[in-house]
Protein 1
Amino acid sequence: MHSSSAAQRLQRLRVITSNLLKQLNWQQRLLQFSSNHIGLTIVMICGIYICVQVLFVRAFGIDTTASIARVQAQRQIEQLSDTSSDSIPLIAASLITRIVIPAAEINAPVLTVGMIPTTSTGEQEWNIARYAVGHHNKTGIPGQGENIVFSSYASDYGRIFASLDKAIPGSTITVYEGDVAHNYTVISQQLVKAPHPSMREQINDSAIISPTKGEQVTFITCWPPSGSDRYSSYLVVIAKP
């Protein structure tokens, strides 16, 4: 009787020991697998994170940039309205409110800009809006059948036109008057030698900003935005309805 009971206890002990050994062996294999593949795991996690970031930028990046630009542009208007000096360059709200060029990832607010005198020659040049696209106040409005001229910075103050060169013929451009959208298609892109390149973007070429027989939009920025030949030319993009 006692012998049978002792044998049963011994058998149970063997089963428990076997199960413990199996469990320890499984845990060791799991730890070994994790150790051997920890590098791969980290790479996979980083890859997933990067993919999520890229998708986020694709989905929200343009709108976020545009929101920041609108805030900066509004501050610019408010700062100028706080002073009564006649020497302040003309920058004001525009009937044209927004420019969207998907091919160039441009989605920016629009301000009206006017001519200001240069300090060195006494001539005039177009002021350039900061953190926004400047609509030249002596040029057209959508629907009027005229040349509608816009300019902005490519290397400073938000770099709104840094990617304007991606607006190639066939690209779509939308000009908004409030909620009213006017669509245009790019027909040409060219570089025009700048007669007086400087740190300020001098948009003085009358051939570029002069009235046209039919409606078109003209986008101008000094180009290239960097390098030894910085600002040596105007990048001019023209689109028509």
Protein 2
Amino acid sequence: MSRRRQQEEEHENHERWLVSYADFITLLFAFFVVMYSISIVNEGKYRVLSDALESAFRNTPGDTGGAHVVVVPISGGKLQLPVIQKPVNAKAEEVKQQTKEKLRDMAQQITSALGPLVQSGQVRITEGARGITVVINASLLFAPGEATLSAEALRALTEVAKVIAPTAFPITVEGYTDNTPISTPQFPSNWELSGVRAASVVRLFIAEGVAPDRLKEVGYADQRPIASNDTAAGRARNRRVAITIESKLPDKQVDVPVFPKNPG
């Protein structure tokens, strides 16, 4: 009896764990196959969706050519939103480039006309998103607390008017002061002083041939300083007039009434 039991123990299979291991590997392989099949994009269906969206945008009322809609396939398991690619308008780009060149040419003309004042720092000419801006120290234009243009200011602004008058660009004249309070019968506060100073420049431009419908004047008082008002030099910088030649040409405005007219 003991010999038979010994023989059975000797013939016992010690590699049965391989069966369970093989089953586990098979299940793991099946899991990854399923995950891979889920992540595969049906490009045909996405092409149909892309064509449908493109057709819908092209047929929108008021569309003048439409934009190209591209549906980006799934990347990393995430569906990206449709991308609308606007066609490049060569004519618009050409006009935009011509506008930039005209503005830069105007800036060069103004710099040349006001050369000594630019070199002394009393006039600064910059180019930004809005267009060309000419910043003139108020001390050059006005006496303290006054809004009447000085003789030197008349000469400088007349040169600027000669450059901007033949063009069609909109022009905004902005007046600024420092934070020193003012209270006179003519100027109860810095708001009135900054606004009247800007209006004085606008009136000069109109007298020199600039179309009035191109002009706009704004007074900001001491609310937008470019330097600290704690020093005399900072206050002098804050007292200024900024003339911006805007890069965007005016569009034709169509007034639409808010309420319909009463019948009859």
